[in-house]
Amino acid sequence: MNQVENKMEKDVILVVDDQPNNLKVIASVLGRDYSLSIANSGANALKILENNTPDLILLDIMMPEIDGFEVCRRIKSIERISHIPVIFLSAKNDIDDVVNGFRCGAVDYITKPFNSVEVKVRVQNHLNLKHALDQLRITNQKLEELNATKDKFFSIIAHDLRSPFTSIIGFSELLYNQIIDKDYESIEQYAGFIKQSSKQAMELLTNLLEWARSQTGKIEYNPEKLNLTNLIEETALMFDQIALPKNIIIKRVLNQDLEVVADKHMIATVMRNLISNAVKFTAPGGEISVSAQKEEAEIIVNISDNGVGIPSQRIDNIFQIDNNNSTLGTANEEGTGLGLILCKMFVEKSGGWIKVMSEEGKGSVFSFSIRL
After folding, report:
1. pTM for the model
2. In whole angstroms, what is the distance from residue 27 CA to residue 207 CA?
3. Nearest to 11, CA basis, from 42, 33, 44
4. Which pLDDT value is given to residue 1?
5. Quick one: which of 294, 192, 275 has its CA closest to 237?
6. Which tens digit of pLDDT belongs to each residue from 326-369?
7. Dihedrals φ, ψ of 262, to 5°?
8. What's the per-residue H, E or C state across the chain?
9. Angle at 325 between CA 320 and CA 327, to 5 degrees
10. Domains identified in the chain and CATH numbers
11. Residue 6 — very low, low, confident or very high, per pLDDT cuts 50/70/90?
12. Is the pLDDT higher at 338 or at 58?
């Protein structure tokens, strides 16, 4: 069984020839195994290629207005279709014509009259090579994406994780020296800095471990029936104490006993990151609102704040791993954006969506859905 028979859809071959009899002969040879698209001139072939991408092109040379050489040159000059293999099928058998055909970018040159078996074998060989190259391009693209992700990961470890530990070490030394000198004036302030940096390091480590596990496929989606109202309340309660030093109120607007079937760990991680961000980027004395309501076949959860907001140029890529811009919180808290990557990953794993609406200087609303 050859590759064509293994494919659910037949490969598409664009046949370009101005002679109807030639088109009939080619159709009789290839029409059974392939899906043929016909163009009776070079101009028509280029028009077809504006909206279609065949797997291979069989191209005659001697045609009115635009000859096959020029058609091939134009195809190879257009990035979107330049990868399509072109085989010349022509009565011109002079060595200069053959060389010219290859110089134009063709992968093969078959002279007329042709042997039908030879044509079928050459066509299939070039199609096999084309599919292998397509797969190689896809693999290379995935590798480039993985490299970019790896670079981001190491950047976070090298820079963002080092920052809170540098702060912890620095203030610990100051605290130690002041205790030695029996100078207790700034002890409370230094201890506060150490506490804040420790929380930041712990949050970052938690997200890094979650993200690393997700990249190695070690996180499984384990749905269970859970009370979303209770889960949100538990998460918000955890941040009440964290928000207290900034005098931030976390309001809950929740319907009683909202029940869903979802992965409890993933939804808790999403809530933890979104509420944490809201606390970071809300000024002292501000307000955060956490709400959830049922809408048709899903539950919508909103976390809104009246904080610093997000610049419009950052919103489009805020959930992407290559988003390297980090904004300081209102108490100089640092973030990496990795938490939002986890949020998007976990929400989509649950079959939902996540989005943000924000206005710089006025606050943000992060919303995500959970399917019922």
Report:
1. 0.52
2. 59
3. 33
4. 39
5. 275
6. 555 665 555 555 778 888 988 998 889 999 999 888 899 999 99
7. -155, 175
8. CCHHHHCCCCCEEEEECCCHHHHHHHHHHHCCCCEEEEECCHHHHHHHHCCCCCCEEEECCCCCCCCHHHHHHHHHHCCCCCCCCEEEEECCCCHHHHHHHHHHCCCEEEECCCCHHHHHHHHHHHHHHHHHHHHHHHHHHHHHHHHHHHHHHHHHHHHHCHHHHHHHHHHHHHHHHHHHCCCCCCHHHHHHHHHHHHHHHHHHHHHHHHHHHHHCCCCCCCCEEEEHHHHHHHHHHHHHHHHHHHCCEEEEEECCCCEEEECHHHHHHHHHHHHHHHHHCCCCCCEEEEEEEEECCEEEEEEEECCCCCCHHHHCCCCCCCCCCCCCCCCCCCCCCHHHHHHHHHHHHCCCCEEEEEECCCEEEEEEEEEC
9. 120
10. 3-138 (3.40.50.2300), 161-218 (no CATH), 220-372 (3.30.565.10)
11. very low
12. 58
Q: How far apart, in whole angstroms, are the C-alpha atoms of residue 111 and residue 150?
A: 51
**Contact indicator for 37, 12 with CB cutoff of 8 Å:** yes
Mean pLDDT of 286-312: 91
User: Pairing mode, if any, of strands 56-59 and 86-90?
Assistant: parallel
Tokens for 21, please give them. 């009899």
Q: Render pLDDT for 84-107 as a digit per residue (tens, 0 to 9).
A: 999 999 999 899 999 999 999 999
Please name the residues in contact with 136: beta carbons below 8 A apart, sequence gap of 6 or more.
Answer: none
Q: Is the pLDDT of residue 207 over 80?
A: no
Using CA atoms, how far apart are residues 114 and 107, in angstroms rounded to an integer? 17
Q: Of all residues in the chain, what percent carry a pLDDT higher than 90?
A: 49
Structure tokens belonging to residue 243 = 């928000």
